[in-house]
Design a protein that fits this description.
10 helices; globular
Length: 250
């Protein structure tokens, strides 16, 4: 397993970006996990604060970890197009650089906290583009967090609350929007949350609403808080799911 740090100029973001990549050293055709960090983190968060490098050793899986710069991985109302960067430019450039599979069945996305929101937003906006999306303690009710920002400046990203609603940044709007769903080949959603997490209700509400809307959803809860000790367990489970190629929502 190779650990690569890449600096390059993003055409979409029009600025330098940094990626951390864990890449198998074999014949190619690898499955790929796009792994997003939370607020205050960056491309190195998962490498420095979890044992992901140990868990992915020997697996036929590449892990791509970009920086999101606290912008929630969406096209910002008054800023950069992070959604297009994550779902188009990053995917295309990594498929050109590395020997990873171009098939959607081999493509996964995951994230913790703010990254959990970003992973689910991407999967809902691009149905069937990812085989499975994982959220770890995700900030899945963005309107609630918008009303209680707790240090995050929401206005540069989402605009006013009405702009947030009008531009369908809310995951619940996307769940109920039939144009975002591919019934025949819909992405699976795996929602992890610790029982001691103050935002646990967001994961439970998302799982309930998504199931009622017809999505394949698994809610996984166990002891844990909003911290790296719990997220380390989550990424270990995720890699195990991917390697086993199981249909985790059945």
């Amino acid at each position: 397993m190779a650990h690569i740090r890449i600096n390059y100029n993003s055409a979409i973001l029009q600025m330098p970006v940094v990626l951390d990549v864990l890449l198998p050293q074999g014949h190619g055709g690898y499955k790929t996990l796009y792994l997003l960090h939370g607020a205050g983190g960056d491309h190195a968060s998962w490498i420095l604060k979890s044992r992901i490098a140990d868990y992915v050793e020997g697996a036929n899986l590449a892990v791509i970890m970009p920086s999101g710069n606290n912008k929630f991985y969406v096209n910002n109302i008054d800023g950069k197009d992070y959604f297009l960067f994550i779902t188009e430019e990053l995917t295309n450039i990594c498929q050109n650089w590395f020997k990873i599979s171009k098939n959607s069945i081999d493509r996964y996305i995951a994230g913790m906290s703010m990254g959990g929101y970003g992973a689910y937003y991407a999967a809902l906006k691009k149905p069937s583009f990812y085989h499975c999306a994982f959220s770890y303690s995700g900030l899945l009710n963005i309107i609630e967090r918008y009303e209680k920002p707790q240090g995050l400046d929401m206005f540069p990203t989402f605009g006013t609350k009405q702009q947030l609603i009008d531009n369908s940044y809310d995951l619940y709007q996307l769940i109920n929007n039939k144009s975002t769903k591919n019934v025949d080949n819909s992405t699976q959603f795996v929602t992890f949350c610790g029982l001691q997490d103050a935002r646990r209700h967001m994961s439970e509400e998302f799982a309930d609403k998504a199931k009622k809307a017809g999505y394949a959803v698994l809610l996984q809860e166990e002891d844990g808080g909003h911290n790296w000790e719990y997220w380390d367990k989550c990424i270990k489970y995720t890699i195990s799911y991917i390697v086993k190629e199981s249909n985790v929502c059945q």
